[in-house]
Specification:
66% helix, 5 helices, mainly alpha, 128 residues, single chain
């Protein structure tokens, strides 16, 4: 959560360092606050990994000249495209994770509530 809070700081604002951010989170919200949004992070790992492996296998066979002997270049291209596909798939959960991590405690009840609130905003699905 510390990294996310530092990265989500408004541009041009006062930059807090690592130790100051850690101290601020601990004193303001307690030790439990360091894990706020982490459940969403854990939730996104399974689909991200599944899509990545499935896409890699499919793309490796689709782009290789000889599926029995895939070259390093073909593996590299398949891996890059598979990584892009998995990130595209789980990006809404990444947005939810970040919103839950940087929002004040109690803003969202759970992942579904955060997702629902995001979709209810004027940007709608584009907010994800």
């Amino acid at each position: 959560r510390v990294k996310t809070v530092i990265q989500a700081a408004p541009p041009g604002g006062v930059h807090k360092g690592l130790l100051e951010t850690v101290r601020d989170i601990r004193t303001t919200h307690g030790l439990k606050a360091f894990w706020r949004g982490n459940g969403t992070n854990c939730l996104k790992i399974a689909p991200e990994t599944a899509v990545k492996f499935m896409a890699f296998d499919y793309l490796k066979k689709a782009i290789s000249q000889d599926p029995g002997h895939v070259t390093i270049t073909e593996r590299f291209v398949a891996g890059g495209l598979a990584g892009a596909a998995s990130q595209l798939t789980i990006y809404p959960l990444e947005v939810v994770k970040t919103r839950m991590a940087v929002s004040p405690a109690g803003t969202y009840k759970n992942v579904a509530h955060c997702l629902q609130a995001t979709l209810a905003e004027p940007a709608g699905a584009r907010g994800l």
